[in-house]
Specification:
binds zinc ion; 205 residues; single chain
Length: 205
C-alpha cells in the first residue's frame, strides 16, 4: 500500500473516500490488514501529507481511527475527543483538513459503551469533564421524548447515535466553509458507530 500523493488525493471523490473507509474497516474485521512499511511511509510523508479523510471520534482507547479503518501514515486526520463532541477548535481543525489540505470526507464516529455518553446519562459532574457531559446531555431530551420508556441502559445506544447526528448538525451550522463544501460536493459529511465488541463500523447514510 503506497502513501497518498497530492495527485491521488485530487483524484479521489467523496464517495470513493467513503468506500476506502468501508473497505478499511472490512479488512480490519477480517484481520486482513494491508502490509505497510510504516518507516518507509515516514520518509514518504516528510515533505507533506495528503490525507483523504477527517475523522472526529472519541478518545476511547478501544477505538483508534487509524487502526479500525486500517490506514497508514498520511491517510487520515484523526481528531479525538471524549464523546466526539464539536467545538470551535474541532471545527477549525476540520476546516484545515478539508479546505486547506484537501481531505474529501468528514466522518463523525461514535462508539458503543462510550463513557462520555454514559456519563451524560448519569449526569456526571467532575471538574472540566462536566463541560463534555453537559454537551452530550443536550441531546437527551430529544431521545427521551422519542423513547419515553427506555431504561438508562437502553438510552446509551440511542443517545450515542443522536450525539453523532448532533455533532454533524453542529459542523454544518457552525461552519460556513464545511457546509458550502458539502453543498458543492467537494466533501461528504457522514456519521457512523463503532462497535467495540465486533470491530464493525455501522455507516449512517
Ligand atoms: Zn467514548
Amino acid at each position: 500500500m503506497r502513501t497518498l500523493t497530492k495527485e491521488d488525493q485530487k483524484n479521489l471523490t467523496p464517495d470513493r473516500s467513503l468506500t476506502l473507509l468501508k473497505e478499511g474497516n472490512k479488512r480490519f474485521t477480517n484481520n486482513l490488514k494491508l502490509n505497510r512499511n510504516l518507516l518507509q511511509q515516514v520518509n514518504e510523508t516528510t515533505a507533506g501529507q495528503n490525507p483523504f479523510a477527517v475523522i472526529i471520534s472519541c478518545m476511547d482507547s478501544r477505538a483508534p481511527a487509524e487502526i479500525i479503518f486500517d490506514q497508514g501514515l498520511g491517510d487520515i486526520f484523526s481528531i479525538r475527543i471524549a464523546g466526539n463532541i464539536i467545538n470551535d477548535d474541532i471545527i477549525g481543525s476540520t476546516e484545515f483538513g478539508t479546505k486547506a489540505v484537501g481531505a474529501k470526507i468528514v466522518m463523525v464516529l461514535g462508539h458503543s459503551s462510550c463513557g462520555a455518553i454514559n456519563g451524560a446519562i448519569q449526569n456526571v459532574q467532575l471538574g472540566k469533564l462536566s463541560s463534555v457531559t453537559d454537551k452530550v446531555r443536550r441531546c437527551l431530551p430529544k431521545v427521551k421524548d422519542t423513547h419515553p420508556k427506555a431504561s438508562d441502559n437502553d438510552l446509551i445506544p440511542l443517545l450515542s447515535k443522536e450525539n453523532v447526528l448532533q455533532s454533524i448538525r453542529e459542523l454544518r451550522e457552525n461552519s460556513p466553509i464545511l457546509s458550502e463544501m458539502e453543498k458543492t460536493s467537494e466533501i461528504k459529511i457522514v456519521g457512523g458507530m463503532y462497535d467495540i465488541a465486533t470491530g464493525l463500523v455501522d455507516f449512517y447514510e
